[in-house]
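Students often ask why we bother predicting the structure of a whole assembly rather than each chain alone. The short answer is interfaces. A chain on its own may look different once its partners are present, and contacts between molecules only exist in the joint model. In this exercise we take two input lines together and write out one structure for the complete complex. Read the inputs first and try to guess which parts will touch.
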Amino acid sequence: MKRHFDEELKKLNKQLLKMSALVEGSIGRSVKALVERKADLIEEVIKSDKAINMLEIEIDELCLRLLALHQPTAIDLRFITSAMKINNDLERIGDQAVNIAERTQEIIKQPLLKPLIDIPRMAVLAQKMVKDSIDALVNKDESLARDVCKRDDKVDNLHHQVFRELLTYMIQDSKTITMAVELILVGRHLERIADHATNIAEDVIYFIHGKDIRHHLEKYTFV
Amino acid sequence: MVDKVTSHQSPVTSKKDVRISIRNLNIWYANTQVIKNVRLDIEKNRVTAIIGPSGCGKSTLIRTINRMNDIIPDAKVKGEILLDGKNIYGDDIDVVEVRKRVGMVFQKSNPFPKSIFENVAYGLKINGFISAGGRSASGGKKKGQLMERVEQSLKDAALWKEVKDRLGDSAFDLSGGQQQRLCIARALAIEPEVVLFDEPCSALDPTATAKIEELIQKLKKKYTIIIVTHNMQQAARISDFCAFLMLGELIEFDKTDKIFTAPSEKVTEDYITGRFG
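Now the answer. The structure tokens for the assembled complex follow.
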């Protein structure tokens, strides 16, 4: 039976996709600004964050309205509650992109300590995790969502690597501290983006199966 | 069909918590089978809801639990319903005794055309209770307890405060919601172990419904409750366990929160999300 409610759910799905596209764009631009040292992109990231924040509120309002008016159950309920959490994670990812842009503002004022290698690698991984977690939501693809969860370790490892390497620079020459700390923070922001993408992937699995795998409850085994 | 029914583990974990155990129950009206091989454990001091589309056999199933189907000439029942381990369809069973232990509240409130007091006292009087000044056929053992029991039943049904100064008024002077609570008080008066509710709120407004729901939550401390409801949100709000019935088959039986957040069967999900029906 076709329900009017399905149209509303489709609208929510569409809004989430719009949010995700804005956020992915922000990560891309913030990292590009860093790697290619482009100040104009920084402004764009900060500007688009306002749109992301407004959309977050819109999506939350839509979810609350659907909960109040339709009193959804089962998969509908799981979709809406997951959407609320995913919405929040996406907005936080947007904030991290702004943080990266703000760090970049400082970084590009000075010459680099060394060519950037691991940070762009982290950026590619984190960006792909965000994209795939949302693809998993749209296509109800459980295995893709689980794969996103697994990839978080790779980003964590790179994050540690970046930190260790920059630490050696700081120990050798205290003049590098300001620059190194900025880069360590960029690494930290990218690592947080990957964490938020993992949260989204976990919510996607809950939405599909009603199984909560957060905090390694189920050790990511297939069931 | 049989595999499907037995494939679900009963959510009732301990055998000693089971008050009613329905075993391989089949019911026919003439040649039409309306309940098909249902197995269901009802836990004591819990609310078990039975949901399902119209005509799925919900009311038939609940009526079987206090043998109300006996009065339907064409009805044939096969299988067992164990009340505290004893089959209520056994040969040596006194139906009146069963109905004393398993009370029932119906969809439409049906008070007797008598006073509020008499409505509650009726069943008690039949069972030998008499008022303080009256005479007892059974030797007056229960003398003086009648008023006490009527008061307690009205209190249990959350009606006492509203009627205590007008016990002599006709039951028909009460509002729809009050009449339904009066019927609940009447059912509680003879101290049953189990109370069956067949769509108790379908004729009530949201405020009266909220009162009955609140009451059911309180009653489960003393009684075992089974409720048939068309209102899915009501089942979600007040029950601990939920059985989903379709075309006479038990499709899924689980804890209510599981049924309404992540049911195991696709057909349960389709029903509770309104994708069919």
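Check your guess against this: The mean pLDDT of chain A is 93.
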